[in-house]
């Protein structure tokens, strides 16, 4: 072999390496400027104090685990990592499998995937309104209150109370009772005030005067207020409204001996058992209207924000899993059905194991994503509960750029976040290499 032939391949190889390096150089410069240099500077800065002039060693890292706010952020980040990716992946799998055989499956997938086109900021604003505590504004509480009131109707008289010189007095626990025992054949007047006319239940009529009936206790419970002024106190005036549906109890020696419900004009009738008893208007008449759930309160703010995240990212999981599902050999599924397997067995024993590598990739990708979650928490959680909803990325922002900024501690949090993300990234890279080697 000639010398030129011996040296030819090495020269060609060097030329190819130089060409490859020339193409890679811009990417390497950008990688160094945008990734390597910030990471290196953050690591360096994390060993200095707030001003950056005094070397403090590991004090910033020790403070991470001593500060209550940062510990809450760590705990909430752990909750995010456990719940959000698993929920989004499970929903994506369910949606992909269930829509595979229906004709409108493509339209459904489009609707589920559509939130991915919305920015995190816009989604946060949307869900801040969805979770509003006022049922008139917040969709979540409007639905919740509607379901609740279907099974436990709220009172129409939450503000009602006895007026001046009323024959009723406070019985404790939100109930009211007559001052004196009632007598059969003598009509009883139970005046109340404090209910807005527009809040009275439907079907309410002008208050009527109960007739005296021998052997029975009759009476009227009504709104002792005349719109526009006028009228006499503790007297049923012509323009005043009855309290339709008000419950009245006759109580003797601490026991309820008879009950009645007021008619549309507020009148009611009790049997002779009520003779000599006290009349009580129980607290159920004055129960405050159910206001719904404090979705953005300290206890539920983190699950509420996770719900918004799952709404956005379940479509991402569904599309990837759906693509993997389309590649599953149909003959395997049909063979299992021919052998007598039901759909649940086919799903659990064949579909899920075949999709396991893809499910792992989706799950790990979402884990990396949620460890950096910031904008949804920042926008949805009100300022009063932001400490309760805090996560590491948000704590990093607040520590580094807040009113009492501490770049040294913020850099330490950034390094901690990087250290937590790296193992998950390595797992993902290792799995991708295994898939590529097959």
UniProtKB/TrEMBL annotation:
Keywords: Cell membrane, Membrane, Transmembrane, Transmembrane helix, Transport. InterPro entries: MetI-like, MetI-like_sf, UgpAE/MalFG_permease. The keyword Isomerase does not apply. It is found in: Cell membrane. The keyword Transport applies. Belongs to the binding-protein-dependent transport system permease family. This is Sugar ABC transporter permease. It comes from Streptomyces yangpuensis.
């Amino acid at each position: 072999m000639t010398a030129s032939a011996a040296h030819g391949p090495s020269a060609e190889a060097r030329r190819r390496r130089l060409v490859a390096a020339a193409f890679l150089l811009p990417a390497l410069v950008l990688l160094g400027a945008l990734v390597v240099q910030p990471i290196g500077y953050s690591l360096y800065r994390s060993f200095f104090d707030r001003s950056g002039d005094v070397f403090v060693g590991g004090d910033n890292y020790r403070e991470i685990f001593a500060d209550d706010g940062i510990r809450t952020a760590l705990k909430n980040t752990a909750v995010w990592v456990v719940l959000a990716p698993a929920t989004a992946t499970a929903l994506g799998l369910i949606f992909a499998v269930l829509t595979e055989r229906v004709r409108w499956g493509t339209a459904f997938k489009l609707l589920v995937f559509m939130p991915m086109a919305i920015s995190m900021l816009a989604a946060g604003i949307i869900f801040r309104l969805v979770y509003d505590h006022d049922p008139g504004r917040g969709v979540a509480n409007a639905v919740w209150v509607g379901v609740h009131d279907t099974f436990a109707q709220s009172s129409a008289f939450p503000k009602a109370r006895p007026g001046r010189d009323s024959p009723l007095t406070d019985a404790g626990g939100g109930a009211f009772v007559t001052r004196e025992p009632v007598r059969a054949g003598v009509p009883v007047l139970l005046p109340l005030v404090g209910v807005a006319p527009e809040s009275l239940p439907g079907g309410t009529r002008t208050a009527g005067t109960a007739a005296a009936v021998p052997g029975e206790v009759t009476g009227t419970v009504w709104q002792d207020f005349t719109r526009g002024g006028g009228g006499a106190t503790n007297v049923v005036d012509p323009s005043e409204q009855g309290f339709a549906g008000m419950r009245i109890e006759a109580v003797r020696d601490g026991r309820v001996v008879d009950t009645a419900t007021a008619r549309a004009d507020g009148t009611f009738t009790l049997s002779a058992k009520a003779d000599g008893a006290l009349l009580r208007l129980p607290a159920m008449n004055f129960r405050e209207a159910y206001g719904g759930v404090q979705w953005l309160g300290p206890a539920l703010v983190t699950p509420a924000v996770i719900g918004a995240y799952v709404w956005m990212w379940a479509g991402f999981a569904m599309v990837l899993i759906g693509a993997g599902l389309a590649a599953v050999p149909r003959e395997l599924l049909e063979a299992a059905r021919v052998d007598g397997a039901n759909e649940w067995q086919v799903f659990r024993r064949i579909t899920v194991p075949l999709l396991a590598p893809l499910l792992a990739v989706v799950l790990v990708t979402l884990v990396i994503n949620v460890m950096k979650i910031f904008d949804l928490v920042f926008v949805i959680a009100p300022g009063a509960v932001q400490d309760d909803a805090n996560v590491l990325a948000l704590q990093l922002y607040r520590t580094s750029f807040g009113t009492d900024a501490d770049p040294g501690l913020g850099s330490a949090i950034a390094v901690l976040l990087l250290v937590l993300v790296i193992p998950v990234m390595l797992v993902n890279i290792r799995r991708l290499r295994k898939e590529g080697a097959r």
